[in-house]
Amino acid sequence: MSRQGDNLWKCNGLSLVLTALFALFLLAQIVSGHAAWNADRLDHHLPPDAWSSYLTSGHFLSATFENWESEFLQMGMYVLLTVWLRQRGSAESRPLDPAEEEERIEPGPTPWPVLANGVWRWLYAHSLSIAFFALFALSFVLHACGSWKHENDERAMAGEPAISLAEHLRGAQFWFESFQNWQSEFLAVLSIVVLSIFLRQDKSPESKPLSAPHRQTGT
Question: Which of 23, 174, 188, 216 is the most buried (most CB within 10 A)?
Fold first, then answer.
């Protein structure tokens, strides 16, 4: 239950702003992607696609899920790696000494899977990484299907025969699309892990306090 004086914006401002930014940039992607795809079709003397056709096209599906796939892989791996691995001085790392860790639990009802014990407790204990990897798997499949459809669309425009999904997955294009995003996601994570050793952002939970020494590990 919200405390007195709390409101929707105060309690959910971060998720509301992130949702709005996601929707804004997704819309911008659709508008610009639709224009780019139709320009490609016109170059091949084909009529432009309608909005409804574009949203189910390989061009849109491949580009969208190619990026989502890498984001969920990044977050899932990051959640798991930070369980076992440490980085001295990083705000993104658990303390080097487990004795320095403190579990802060605010008053409130305990989630029911914790009370249920057994398999429900185990699933709840690993639910964050399970969710990220499930979303990664779903995005990977949708990226593969969208990329395959896009390649066949391009082959059709060039007057070439379509290929099977298996043939597409054996080719270089799909894996090039995946690896170019995967490497950039891990570079981004590496950057915040290392930069948070030496740099600060006042009042951010992703940063150590301004007066904290560089060697201090964790927030």
Answer: 174
Query: Three-state SS across 117-185?
Result: CHHHHHHHHCHHHHHHHHHHHHHHHHHHHHHHHHHHHHHHHCCCCCCCHHHHHHCHHHHHHHHHHHHHH
Q: Is the pLDDT of residue 10 over 90?
A: no
Angle formed by the axes of helices 172-198 and 127-157, to 10°?
140
Cα–Cα dist 92/82, whole Å = 8
Closest residue by Cα to residue 92 from 103, 81, 102: 81
Q: Which amino acid is at 218?
A: G
Which residues neighbour 60 within 8 Å (Cβ) at sequence distance 6 or greater? 30, 33, 34, 37, 54, 146
CA gap 147, 65 in Å, rounded: 9
Instruction: Give me the DSSP letters along 32-44.
Output: HHHHHHHHHHHHT
Model confidence pLDDT, tens digit, residues 169-187: 999 999 999 999 999 999 9
